[in-house]
C-alpha cells in the first residue's frame, strides 16, 4: 500500500475546530457562501475547513474568529486532549448546541438586548433545573 496516496481521516482537532466554526456560523445564521465571501474563498474551501479535511492556518483562523465575533480559544473549547490546557471540558455545551433545540434557544437568547431580562431568564432556567433534580 502506498501511504502517500492512502486516504487519511481528518485529525480530531482539525475536525473539532471545523465543527465549532460550523456551529458558530449557524448560530449567526450565516451561510457557507457568506463566510467564504468574507474570507475571499470558495464555499467548497469553507466546507473542507468545517469537515476538518483541510487545516486552517493561524492567520486564517484569526480572520474567521474576527468574522464570527469570538475569541480564537472558542474553536478549541472541548477539543480532544486539550481539556487540561483550557480548564474544564465543555463537551456538554457543544452537544447542546448541536441539537436543534439548543441552537434555537441560543439564537433566541442572543437576540434579547436587555441584560437584566437575560439574567432573569438564566435564573428561571436554573430554578426549573433545580426543581427537576428534586
DSSP strand count: 0
* Radius of gyration using CA atoms only: 18 Å
Main β-sheet: number of strands, strand sense, barrel status? none
Q: How would you state the average pLDDT, rounded? A: 84
Question: Ends: how far apart?
Answer: 59 Å
Strand content: under 5%
SSE order, as H and E?
A: HHHHHHHH
The stretches of 5 or more residues where confidence is low (pLDDT under 50) are 83-89
- Which shape, going by the Cα principal axes? globular
Structural class assignment: mainly alpha
Helix amount: 55-70%
What's the quaternary structure here? Answer: single chain
Question: Helix segment count?
Answer: 8
Describe the structure in your own words.
- There is one protein chain.
- The protein is built from 8 helices and no strands.
- The protein has helices spanning 12-27, 32-39, 43-51, 58-68, 83-86, 91-97, 100-110, 115-133.
- Helix 1 packs across helix 3 (43-51) and helix 2 (32-39) packs across helix 3 (43-51).
- The chain starts with 11 loop residues before the first helix and ends with a helix.
- Residues 83-89 have low confidence and may be disordered.
